[in-house]
């Protein structure tokens, strides 16, 4: 019981106040950035009963499609969200300046209307409100500057530190919707490259969706996706079972891990001590063998400095995106195994040997 109280206390201490829903309402004012960033969103959140433009933590059986145009200030610091105050100032803060609602077909058409052929799909983690996840996804996509269209899949997190179990259920509730979205992107003749990034509990949701695609017989879809799990909050044994069912992908499934992740340590306590894959020791011979056998690329990112909970390295990684050896198609690591990021400059080193050119 003492360990459970400690776990909850640690979670609560790490959680600050959350932005209000109004930050996603378009502000009709001069835009400091004349080219706002368009953040596409597919969500299983329900619409607010009192304000149709808001999404709450209700669970919707149908997916809503929307895009937010977000003005990002000229002085934006990579890795940060300059949250808007009241009144918001687009010269110094992130400000929502536009919104578009779509049906399913219109959403898919809008993704590629400006010639985009690459798509990045971000799945947020536990304890995230709609507002937090939209602004964070926009910040990560903007900092990475990977090009193409950026999509957030927003599942109905309760956005409360004490809502861990409810969030896990909400993520599972959204599995079929995420799998369908990935199918839609793959089936689109205009989309060439699909990069799927699942953070924390969003990593569990990502693996469940991939597993559903495999069981549905959509191996053609799985051949077209590149998958990155950052700080995944997944039971160790469950992950390897999922990986076995999903099977080897043409580009190995990348899993960014850090043994010092305090949030996953708390998750482990809440799960009766069951290890989380996001805290894996890449130097463990058993872990290395499993990575090779299942076509997984385990990457220890402990060398990247991060926040107190050591659970947000995806933010710093986005700022370093163009330095990563896996950043661009046709370059970087294309094999499974265990690696350490930052062991050689800003590159990655394979456990037991220094990395050479991709092969």
From TrEMBL:
<dbReference type="InterPro" id="IPR014586">
    <property type="entry name" value="UCP033909"/>
</dbReference>
<dbReference type="InterPro" id="IPR010297">
    <property type="entry name" value="DUF900_hydrolase"/>
</dbReference>
<keyword id="KW-0378">Hydrolase</keyword>
<dbReference type="Pfam" id="PF05990">
    <property type="entry name" value="DUF900"/>
</dbReference>
<dbReference type="InterPro" id="IPR029058">
    <property type="entry name" value="AB_hydrolase_fold"/>
</dbReference>
<protein>
    <submittedName>
        <fullName>Alpha/beta fold hydrolase</fullName>
    </submittedName>
</protein>
<dbReference type="GO" id="GO:0016787">
    <property type="term" value="F:hydrolase activity"/>
</dbReference>
